[in-house]
Amino acid sequence: MTDGEQRYDDGDDTPLRGYATLATTFVAGAGVFALTAWRRGLRLPDTVPTWDVALLGTATFKASRLLTKDKVTSFLRAPFTRREREGEGSEVMDAPRGTGLRRAVGDLVSCPFCTSTWVAGGLVGTYAVAPRAARLVCAGLSAVVVSDWLQYAWSATEQKAEQ
Fold first, then answer.
1. Count of alpha carbons within 13 Å of 119, Cβ hemisphere only?
2. Of 38, 35, 36, 59, which is closest to residue 121 (Cα–Cα)?
3. Would you state the pLDDT for residue 115?
4. Do 78 and 67 meet the contact criterion of CB atoms below 8 Å apart?
5. CA 90 to mean position of chain CA atoms
């Protein structure tokens, strides 16, 4: 932490400036999207059907897990995290590394709850611009969630049969 950086509390190394940079980036991205949509005359939907909210939510969940926990996407996290251990179902548990902005990005990309806000922003933006394409992407990610549950159910029945 640099001399001028604020501390969250005594002895804490929470990267507040890094978090502020990430929050500013998110808000700026949303603002640029809104301004661009407004300038292009994009008509946003008055309501979002419950089914679409469920589809967006399920897809946000899965995309966030894929980005933050999947082995295959570890190359995206590697500059900002280090592997702590293997998790269940081929997931991995990463921990942030470094200080400042690097640490803040590490916190973001290792936390599915944190990443879900960014994923939801991207999916909702896509939904606003191209709802059919967004539904298709969300349906694909939701199908993976269903597949995951079926894989767990199958594994549980195999384990029970072996007992």
1. 24
2. 59
3. 96
4. no
5. 18
